[in-house]
Amino acid sequence: MSPRESVFRTGVLVRHNLLLMLREPGPLLSRMILPLAFLTLLRPLYVAAQGRAAGTEQAVVGTLVTFSLLALGISGNSILTERLGRTWDRMRGTALHPAEMLVGKAVPVFAALLAQQLLIVGFGVCVLDMSVPHPLPLLGVLLCWSCTLLGIGALLGVLVRSMGELSAAYDIGGMLLSSLGGALVPLGAMPGWIAAAAPVSPGYWAVQGLRAAVAGDTRTVATACGVLLVVASACGALAAVRLQGRGGRLVAL
């Protein structure tokens, strides 16, 4: 198997999975449009409580982390639909390498997750006049956070047994992780035990990394990105190991 053939097959899978995503654009569009409406309605509350600059930053960061966690379904759904349709087994029976199948799934989802976050940040900058003096550290955090979401979503996709379970997992889990991480309500305004438990949530490190990137605190950005990449690697490794079972069949349908 030559590298050129591997790249070609992977590219075909990427295009195929992107086409499947675009044929059912409803979930993707909702994850793009709803955050902007939520941000517009939420920002005046934060501005009134924290001032224009701090309130706008809190609203943008909180919206980004919360709705990106709710977008975990995009990642999980891409794998779960293959399992439910028994097409994963058919793909494994071809000349495709497991790594090619995973990359073919991951690239369109990663692009969708990153596009959602860039859209929210862009809306904050262009419409809400949010200041981003250090765009490169911010982009680094967004890339690391997208990797984390991709890993968590993939793990959900191989563990749950139905679309209903997946929906409950990312709805409930997304709200809990974002709330625990201080996305919607600053941790200083929450009970002490929540602030103490907050670092267990990936959302906490996303919030800390995004705020540090806006402030130009590269040390905190590096720490946050490191933690997010560790979480992404762990979840991705667990998902890959689980998919190496018999055809990736984890449920009795």
From TrEMBL:
Name the InterPro entries for this protein: ABC2_TM, ABC_2_transport, Nod_factor_ABC_transporter
Which keywords accompany this UniProt record? Antibiotic resistance, Membrane, Transmembrane, Transmembrane helix
- Asked if the keyword Transmembrane belongs to this entry, the reply reads yes
Where is it localised?
Answer: Membrane
Could you name the domain of life of the organism this protein comes from?
Answer: Bacteria
According to the record, the segments passing through the membrane are 28-47, 59-81, 102-125, 137-160, 172-200, 220-241
First-listed, main subcellular location of the protein, grouped into a coarse class: membrane
Per UniProt, what is the membrane topology?
Multi-pass membrane protein
| ABC-2 type transporter transmembrane domain boundaries | 11-213
> What protein name applies here?
ABC transporter permease
